[in-house]
Structures are given as structure tokens and as C-alpha cells.
Amino acid sequence: MSDVIFDCTELYQNPIRTGIQRVVREMLRNWPDDGPRLHVVRYDVDRALVRLSEQAVRVLADQEAGTDCLSRDEIALRLAAVDAPPPEPLPEDAVYFIPEVFYDTLRCRYYECLMKAHGKTLAMLGYDFIVYLKPHLFNLRTCLGQIEYLRLIAKAQHVAHISEATRRDYEGRILHAGSPRKGPVLPLGADGLNMERQTWHPDRRNFVALGSIDQRKNQQMIFEAFRMLWRDGHDARLTLIGRAFAAADIAWLDEARNYEQFQWLDEASDENIRRELAAARCTIYVSEAEGYGLPPVESLAVGIPVITTAAMPSLEGLPTVGQIRLEDVTAAAIAEAVETMLTDKAASRLWKDLRQLELSGWADLGSQTALWLETVSADRDHGVATAMETVRLTGTS
């Protein structure tokens, strides 16, 4: 079993606790003791791959005392103080693994060179390709900044995916037609809230929508649904949790703040999330496009039902217990689902049914990733040939 060179450059440069950085952090935290040995590195334009010290890795993984409550800037300062690169060289026969998305052209070309000129084995974790396939959701006119990354992930010998949906996009839209390559799906953990399982009570009147405010997550549509309900005299509160992207149109929030039943918390801290969920009757997550969609499964994992879309990748293949899945996402459809949840009988049934649902945790991601990379190593050592695909970069939808 070969060692693994684990590239976490994005986490190192921007050690936030959300998004892809959160996945990488949890992977480090939950790496199994009997898995391949990790050599954690970051890319540097002058020095190529720089190995991180063991203490720096523990800081990034929140395994040092007190690091789990530090801000991004405080973590960066701690890293600068402890990150003295160990002197030993990286192993020659290791598998290279990138569990991140990045748009650094030089970093992409470095890994292409490792594969083509030096015969190295590269494994990557694919998240989603929404920026390329649906740039209008991000107010982008061009996807040129993503091209080098897309070329790299198409050329990597081994690619795993976070959902069946992202695997379909990869095989159907990124790889050359007719050359599918079945990488495994490694579902993300639903147990990241560190919160005890919640219990039903009719006094729960709050609905929580968690996620950064942007065009695709439809928070404005959620507000419009609640505005309809409030005008009809319904007693329900709506809380949005998440920062607004700079390009997002948030003028509607000015009107929303006029309603006493509404609040927006722009900091998605663990404290804010746990406090609001402790009073929540239901969560709402109706994003138009996702590679996975953690908030719905995290809500379900702590026993709280969710209103979501029928096409949510994180729910594909799961029983529908504890969920109201919307085929068409409109303000009227959201309002109807909320009205259903405001009925104590219907809400209590969804809460009760949810007890039978079992979900994957972050430890499962760590162990399954380690097992997959062991297979990658074994395939290479046994001379299994994997074709180098050519990327198809034509058109968007």
C-alpha cells in the first residue's frame, strides 16, 4: 500500500469552516489509523509541493486544543507560527491526491507535468461543475478561469465524486463522449453539527434556511412564500443563516427586515446554527443547483424535517421520510409545504418517521476515501492501465 501525498493548498490559504474547506478538514480529522500514510502538502509556485509539519496539520484539522473555536485569521496566524517544513523528501512512489477545487493555472500545469513527464498517479475528488455548466447562476459571462482545472480533472487517472449527480455531469459533460470512467461516489458526512438529536414540540415555530445568499439558493423566493403566509395570518418565523455573496442582489432583504417574524444572521457560526435549529420546526433548502447539498442531510441527522427539492443530490437514493420534496420550486409551492408543516399533526408525523433514517458520517468519508486510494495504489502496482481522457469543453446549459 503506497503512501498518499494529500494536497490541501486551498484549506491552508483560506482555512474557513464551510464549503470545500470543511470537507477537506473533516477528511483529515477522520483519516483512519490503518489507512495509507498521509503526507500533507501545499503548493508553492517557487517550491512546488511543500510538506506541512505535523503540528500544522493538527491545527488545520482542529486537533490542537482550542483550534476549533478560532477564526480564519487566528488559524492563519497559528499556522504561520508552527509550519516549519520537515526536511525529509516526499516519497517517490506515493499516490497524489487533490480533494479540492482550484483555479490556479500554474498548479494545474504542475500536476499535468507530474503525470505526463514523470509518470505519477493523480487521484482527485470532484465536487461539481455548476460554474462551468450553468455560469448564469453566478452572473458570469465566461468560464475561461475554470478551463485549466477542468482539463486537469479530465486527465487525472482516478476521480471520485461526492454524488451520483456530479459523477453524471463528469462522465457526460467533462469527459470526451463515449469514454466513461466509473469513479466511486464518496458521500459527505451528515453529522457535522455536533448537536444532540432534537425532539418534536408544537411550540417550535421557526423555519430555518441555511446557506450563503446567492441567486441559485432561492432565499428571495423563500421570503416571498413567507410573506404570502404572513399576509394570510399564519404564525411562523423565518431565519436565514449565511453570508451574502458580493454579486448577489439583496435589495429584497430591506423589505424582509420590516417583518418582525424575519431575521437574517450573516454569520454561519456553529453557535448561530445550533441555537436556531434548537427552536426549528423545519429547515428549508431549495437550491436550484448543487453538487451535493449538506444542509438537508445535516438537518435530518439531528432529527429536524426539511423542505427541499426533489433533485437534491445528497438525498438521491435515500428514503423520503422527514422530507417534503418539491418537484417545482416556486413561492406558492414553498408556501404550501410550510403550511403543511404548520399543522401539528403533519409535522409530528414527519418528525416521528425521521427516526428510522440512517445517514453517513464524516468518519465514513475518511474510511471510504482511504479504501479507494488503497485500490488506486493496488491498481497502479498491478499495472492496470487507465486511459487518459480528453476534455470536452463545448457549450454550456
Automatic annotation (TrEMBL):
Keywords: Transferase. The keyword Magnesium does not apply. Pfam families: Glycos_transf_1. Residues 199-347 form the Glycosyl transferase family domain. GO terms for molecular function: glycosyltransferase activity. It comes from the Bacteria. This is Glycosyltransferase involved in cell wall biosynthesis. It comes from Aurantimonas endophytica.
